[in-house]
């Protein structure tokens, strides 16, 4: 229920802001707006303002529109003909069309700025044990290393890293852009932090997923290898493990953090589902206890992994990332730019086949993340809104005939050749745009179904 409610709230807000951008720019340009609708179908609420605009909230909230006075959509009183949208100069028509996506991008800036100013509790940028065989392990990163800053070029100013989430975002961006990155590692008061170069350009990254972060080797923040809640019917309980036990070694190998311990537990099951017992040394009550733990095999995808039936790992150390209002606004602009640029870059790479089409997400994935972010709290939901608002703004600027970007493409043609496209070409492009958009939506829906149920 929370997922459905959060999804509807998110869609209603984003659509309302988008259409509000068109509406406000039309009013500023002197074009009468006949109807402002959030949703389609049977009206649930309706009212009029002094200018005569009818505002509608309809039953199906998966879209919206602004209907302006326009000679192409019906007869116009000759006395008001000069006010119609299609009678406006090119610059006004372009401004009205572009104002919708611009409103979404502006909303994203403000939402990101609000989150940065209010302060969000995030894991500290302290690394868990690098994934075996990863770039991070080869570069010499170790569990417990604190990343102070990242540096893209040798002569570039280091960029401070305030949280693990920010570090992961920088790593993913650099990998997708095929840029090497240098991490500056040490304690906050370290006079000369250690520089660790990560050759991310050689990864040839195609997808933004957990597998990319695993290849880089930075998957989770450091957390102590402590046993949490133990299920009474699990392998941990059968072996005598207790909540609060701190695991010091497995099969004679020192355990550096919880991520490493989880990886060793999963690796206890082979490709045929056979499990080998492990010798654990745990710290309990000030002393050391040696136990034999036999994880239980569980089917995972096409293979098997080991499970012990207990929570593994203490909560990572957290920090509150809060900025001054000017810094928060600058952060909002920067994050909106980065997310928008990344969206365009991924779309371009999907078109030329350098990125997987699996990166496309549809309404089911958006609804799933809306519910998850709402369950995490108001700030997480606001961050989710900002992300989707950027995507909505960027996607609407694509030069597809049925989108705002398609209309801007027509206006660019008109500006260059001095006349609008012919009605025949407009109809052909409209049909092609609808077909392409339907194909993309179908693909996104299939990706959603595979991602959620496959």
Automatic annotation (TrEMBL):
Name of one Pfam family that matches: PDZ_6
Residues annotated as transmembrane: 94-115, 378-398
Domain PDZ intervals: 226-263
Requisite cofactors: Zn(2+)
Keyword Protease: yes
Principal subcellular localisation of the protein: membrane
GO BP terms in the entry: proteolysis
Compartment annotation: Membrane
One Gene Ontology molecular-function label: metalloendopeptidase activity
Broad EC category: hydrolase
EC number: 3.4.24.-
Keyword Repressor included in the entry's annotation: no
Entry superkingdom: Bacteria
Membrane topology qualifier: Multi-pass membrane protein
InterPro entries (UniProt xref): PDZ, PDZ_6, PDZ_sf, Pept_M50_Zn, Peptidase_M50
Keywords tagged on the record: Hydrolase, Membrane, Metal-binding, Metalloprotease, Protease, Transmembrane, Transmembrane helix, Zinc
GO cellular component: membrane
Family the UniProt entry places it in: Belongs to the peptidase M50B family.
Protein name per Swiss-Prot or TrEMBL: Zinc metalloprotease
Organismal lineage: Bacteria, Pseudomonadati, Pseudomonadota, Betaproteobacteria, Burkholderiales
